[in-house]
Q: What sequence folds into this?
């Protein structure tokens, strides 16, 4: 690692804490871009492996299949022995229920370690997003992560906030290739890793329409500074451009029962509720979404987004994803999408709506765009879940589900991603169906080399606990009830009267 | 004149266990009453280097964390910075957390959120002035977990220190709260591991001590003085926790001392350690005395506190 190129701080001129400015920070920062970064696929369609969500025996456990795919997709070749391997996941908002179960992450951590890597699980802090956000503040984020079961005890490796205590521990990455962004900021625990395995919960997203592995890079790996940039904060003029909140004439002012929440939703006090409507101080605003999302979550319409904001943000987050990918040598990042609990919204929402389709399965690849494209196609081909917002909006099998549900097609992002060199949209899908053999059944068990029954055999040989209390006490019982009565409780016919 | 409270190790019993003693220390020091609901308190602790085997038991720190939680209704942050070993390569946040975990320290065992002061890189922080124009450093960069908190309690595992004499409140509340690159700057080329045969000269050592204490001024500036110190005189080893090994303690454990004055606290602490050293540990303690004298006198001259103290001993 090279020393930062920066002017020495003029220590003796200090009279108060230094408030960093853009110039100061950029001089302190240095660019971690690897010389050989690039899309994994050089030519032709990219291989993508898929294991569906059905399971009927040991080998078909979703966890077992996740481990299989890790090797099938050659993610074990993303790192060398001794490499520091970041496992990038989403820690999930407080009260969010549709987050990945810790077991999926533990499974990959186990295999990274088994292959000689040094894994650690990471996620960056977020911007405030809404009034009760738990992820903008690193200590709150860790409380939420623990509540979701994401702990060092669960994973047997460190669980870290990638961009530090305050979200400022980052690197600046230059993006001359970007369609919109020309720079971004990546959390250091990501940028300093030798390799990375990204495990994404594939589901919808209110801003980018869909969130999978690309979203994990394009927002998830961005530090606070990176997220502000990716949000397109301050693009254009405050009153007509996309990078600012849109204040409508629908704000009822203090007549709104949420007006105190609204006032408190901004960490910079950039707006204030008046008797009628709102007053806004654009010079204080940084576009963290707090006011917009708090208003929308409250079911009100006073503060919202510019209509063209979303496709622009989708393209920008592909640029930002490139910033994360450039921190690694080509082929040093592996990707897994878990299309499970495919709900309409992001894991940064403090709730989860009904899934828009049944669980699809697990996908893995070293090409993130191909993986995303395959995931989207499989989700689109899946049935529409009854009672979901997808059904409510008239979505049919084969429709672009996230366009129907969230407004724009996520393929906008994928096209942008392909254009700037994140990967290819062409993929070759291999359906992985494990064969039930004794070896495969044992392979991913807790003690593959010694069946539990054999272990218990040894234990029972020393002390057979059942024998000590046998014969168990048996008394006369109502045979009519046990043999016949229960047959009458047919749930579809109802319990017979009397 | 600094006021120091000492809860010693006498009269241990079912209602006077080590936990009771630590809680009593906090009550007698009157610090819990000063905590407002919602206050963000950071507890600066020591997480030992791999190979150092006399680190404080997590329960000793958890007791304080629980007291803070009760007073503030907030889960406190516990933090320590990256060590100095091979700073640019081995000391990534992930390997630091691995070592921390092996010592038995986690958010579960410590009763609060454990974070790296300075983030994954150890370099996340803000710059604060150390005092006037006559200071050597001018300003220092204080780790984010410390400088972004409302209050900091320094829970120092007291040990001897090869460069500074004693590692107590002054070292842990100052130099140890700085970001990694700042500590590199304060060291100014001094090898902190004299066991490698690289003992620095007297002049270089004096310069380092002065700079390290100026760093403490920067930390106090960051917290606007809202710092409280507890010295755990427990398993006082000849080596500090950043060493990759530890010899047997220099004497029996003497309990817990606390003060708002780090100079008075370290002065009392060293006196207690010296008076109670075992025959086998006396040589190590006496060989540290000169460095401790210099540390305390420079600290007093810099305005960090007073070497004159009143001691309230509670058994």
A:
């Amino acid at each position: 690692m090279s020393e930062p190129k920066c002017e020495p701080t003029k220590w003796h001129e200090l009279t108060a804490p230094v408030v960093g400015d853009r110039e100061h920070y950029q001089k302190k920062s240095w660019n971690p871009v690897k010389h050989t970064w690039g899309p994994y696929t050089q030519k032709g369609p990219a291989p993508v492996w898929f294991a569906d969500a059905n399971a009927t025996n040991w080998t078909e456990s979703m966890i077992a299949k996740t481990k299989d795919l890790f090797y099938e997709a050659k993610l074990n070749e993303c790192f060398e022995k001794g490499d520091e391997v970041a496992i990038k996941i989403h820690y999930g908002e407080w009260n969010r229920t549709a987050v990945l179960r810790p077991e999926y992450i533990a499974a990959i951590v186990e295999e990274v370690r088994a292959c000689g890597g040094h894994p650690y699980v990471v996620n960056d802090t977020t911007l405030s997003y809404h009034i009760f956000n738990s992820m903008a503040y690193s200590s709150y984020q860790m409380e939420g992560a623990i509540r979701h079961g994401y702990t060092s005890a669960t994973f047997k490796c460190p669980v870290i906030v990638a961009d530090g205590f305050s979200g400022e521990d980052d690197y600046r990455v230059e993006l001359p290739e970007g369609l919109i962004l020309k720079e971004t900021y990546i959390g250091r625990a990501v940028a300093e890793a030798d390799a990375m395995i990204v495990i994404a919960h594939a589901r919808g997203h209110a801003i980018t329409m869909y969130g999978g592995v690309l979203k994990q890079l394009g927002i998830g790996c961005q530090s606070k500074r990176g997220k502000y940039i990716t949000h397109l904060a301050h693009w254009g003029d405050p009153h007509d451009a996309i990078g600012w909140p849109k204040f409508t004439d629908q704000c009822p002012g203090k007549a709104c029962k949420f007006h105190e929440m609204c006032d408190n939703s901004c960490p910079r006090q950039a707006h204030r509720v008046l008797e009628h409507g709102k007053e806004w101080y654009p010079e204080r605003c940084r576009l963290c979404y707090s006011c917009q999302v708090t208003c929308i979550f409250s079911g009100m319409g006073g503060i919202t987004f510019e209509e063209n904001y979303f496709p622009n943000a989708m393209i920008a987050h592909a640029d930002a994803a490139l910033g994360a990918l450039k921190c690694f040598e080509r082929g040093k990042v592996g990707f897994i999408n878990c299309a499970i609990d495919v709900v309409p919204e992001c894991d940064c929402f403090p709730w989860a709506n009904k899934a828009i389709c049944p669980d699809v399965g697990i996908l893995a690849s070293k090409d993130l765009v191909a993986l995303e494209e395959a995931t989207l196609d499989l989700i689109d081909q899946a049935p529409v879940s009854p009672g979901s917002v997808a059904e409510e909006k008239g979505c049919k099998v084969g429709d672009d589900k996230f366009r129907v549900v969230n407004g724009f097609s996520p393929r906008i992002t994928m096209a942008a991603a392909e254009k700037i060199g994140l990967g290819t949209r062409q993929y070759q899908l291999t359906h992985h169906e494990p064969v039930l053999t004794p070896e495969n059944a044992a392979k991913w068990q807790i003690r593959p080399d010694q069946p539990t029954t054999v272990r218990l055999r040894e234990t029972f040989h020393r002390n057979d606990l059942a024998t000590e209390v046998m014969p168990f006490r048996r008394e006369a019982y109502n045979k009519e009830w046990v043999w016949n009565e229960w047959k009458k409780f047919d749930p579809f016919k109802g319990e017979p009267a009397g | 004149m600094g006021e120091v409270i000492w809860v010693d190790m006498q009269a241990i019993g079912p209602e006077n266990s080590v936990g009771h003693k630590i809680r009593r220390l906090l009550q007698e020091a009157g610090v819990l009453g000063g905590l407002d609901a919602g206050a963000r308190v950071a507890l600066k602790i020591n997480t030992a280097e791999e190979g150092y085997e006399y680190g404080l038991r997590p329960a000793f720190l958890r007791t304080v964390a629980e007291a803070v939680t009760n007073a503030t209704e907030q889960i406190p942050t516990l933090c320590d910075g990256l060590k100095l070993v091979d700073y640019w390569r081995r000391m990534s946040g992930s390997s630091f957390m691995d070592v921390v975990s092996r010592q038995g320290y986690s958010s579960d065992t410590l009763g609060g959120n454990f974070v790296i002061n300075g983030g994954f890189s150890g370099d996340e922080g803000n710059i604060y002035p150390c005092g006037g124009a006559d200071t050597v450093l001018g300003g220092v960069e204080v780790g984010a977990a410390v400088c972004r908190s409302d209050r900091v309690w320094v829970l120092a595992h007291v040990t001897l220190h090869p460069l500074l004499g004693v590692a107590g409140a002054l070292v842990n509340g100052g130099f140890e709260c700085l970001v990694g690159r700042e500590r590199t700057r304060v060291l100014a080329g001094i090898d902190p591991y004299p066991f490698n045969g690289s003992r620095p000269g007297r002049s270089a050592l004096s310069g380092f001590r002065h700079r390290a204490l100026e760093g403490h001024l920067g930390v106090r500036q960051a917290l606007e003085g809202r710092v409280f110190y507890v010295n755990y005189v427990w398993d006082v080893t000849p080596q500090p926790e950043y060493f990759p090994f530890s010899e047997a303690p220099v004497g029996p454990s003497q309990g817990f001392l606390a003060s708002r004055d780090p100079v008075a606290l370290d002065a009392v602490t060293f006196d207690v350690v010296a008076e109670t050293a075992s025959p086998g540990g006396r040589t190590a303690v006496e060989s540290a005395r000169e460095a401790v004298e210099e540390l305390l006198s420079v600290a007093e001259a810099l305005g960090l506190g007073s070497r004159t103290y009143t001691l309230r001993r509670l058994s």
In short: Chain A has 19 helices and 16 strands. The two ends of chain A are 81 Å apart (CA to CA). Residues 309-325 of chain A form the longest helix (17 residues).
